[in-house]
Specification:
Elements: H1 2-6, E1 11-16, H2 19-25, H3 34-47, E2 52-57, H4 64-75, H5 110-117, H6 125-135, E3 138-141, E4 144-147, E5 155-157, H7 160-172, H8 181-191, E6 193-194, H9 198-208, H10 210-214, H11 246-257, H12 264-276, H13 287-292, H14 300-303
Parallel strand pairs: 1-2, 5-6
Antiparallel strand pairs: 3-4, 4-5
Helix pairs in contact: 5-6, 7-9, 8-9, 11-12
């Protein structure tokens, strides 16, 4: 009513889904509640500003538009919405224009998806035969392309951008162990991801990792002359050789810490977790799977669910 008064309305019909309130403002019911009595006097004061005001009852399902107008009037700021114009246009008031829409970049999955989903075939018979052979190894689930295997679960196919994210998280994320190329590729497959250049991309990513190159094995070091150790009697001299997994853990700590050697205690839990989620060369399984019979859920699943 305040908004209508500012707009200069003289005749007003109000609809409400409260039967009791409609009868109270029409003086058919008595207002006993003190809070409602204040609203009643406020209504009577505003009523004098109009020539005619009618309050009628309607069902709640038919009162949605009135509720929207009430919220609009109650949430407005002073000085705003002083006038409202409602016009029904028979036709569009602006000319139609075509806006260019950028198509997603084409990836290695585009032809396979178009063949499986939209049944689009290339014109070249040799290309069509090759595409049919490739498409037989894939299927589409909820709009996502997956690769089928004989002894492996469905592997989610990734494009170049998604593949870079997965490699970064698995290689040096929370569960990353700065693994070698073949180990990194095996962890990606075990996590449920696939793309055709997985193995070569894993090797190339390892070459670009600064920590792996800085703390890697010196396979190209110059040959050194061997020096024999003389012993006066058998077992006079003893030596200790650190074997796996201790050497692996120490190497991973060096890669993670860099120059901050004193923070090894904070990094040790993540290094141990990464070691337990990495397939070993002897068993071809992760220590976590050998202990619990299932693979651990690694954090890369949060950013790119498989």
């Amino acid at each position: 009513m305040m908004l209508a008064n500012e707009m200069g309305v003289k005749k007003m019909i109000c609809w409400t889904d409260s039967k009791v309130m409609a009868e109270q403002v029409n003086d058919n019911f008595q207002v006993k509640d003190s809070n409602l009595l204040r609203y009643y006097h406020l209504f009577q004061g505003l009523r004098d500003s109009f020539n005619e005001v009618q309050v009628r009852h309607t069902l709640r399902n038919n009162n949605e538009r009135a509720d929207q107008l009430a919220r609009l009037a109650s949430s407005r700021k002073p000085g705003q919405l002083c006038s409202t114009i409602h016009l029904e246009l028979p036709s569009l008031s602006v000319t139609q224009e075509c806006m260019p829409v950028e198509e997603p970049p084409k990836s290695w999955m585009s032809d396979i998806l178009n063949f499986i989903v939209h049944n689009r075939e290339p014109a070249d018979p040799s290309e069509l035969k090759k595409l049919r052979t490739q498409a037989a190894r894939y299927l589409v689930v909820s709009g996502e392309l997956y690769r089928k295997g004989f002894s492996t679960p469905l592997l989610k196919c990734l494009d170049h951008q998604q593949a870079n994210y997965v490699l970064r998280k698995i290689h040096k994320g929370i569960c990353g162990s700065h693994s070698r190329g073949w180990t990194l590729a095996a962890k990606v497959l075990r996590a449920g991801y696939y793309w055709p250049t997985l193995k070569s991309d894993s090797v190339d990513y390892l070459k670009k990792c600064v920590q792996c190159q800085k703390h890697g094995n010196l396979i190209h070091a110059s040959a050194a002359e061997l020096h024999s150790i003389s012993s006066p009697w058998p077992f006079a001299l003893w030596g200790i050789d650190i074997l796996d997994p201790f050497s692996v853990i120490l190497t991973e700590l060096k890669k993670r810490l860099g120059s901050a050697k004193g923070a090894w205690a904070e990094e040790l839990p993540e290094v141990l977790w990464a070691y337990r989620c990495t397939p070993q060369s002897t068993t071809k399984e992760t220590p976590f799977r050998l202990a619990y019979g299932a693979d651990a859920m690694i954090p890369v699943e949060v950013g790119e669910p498989s």
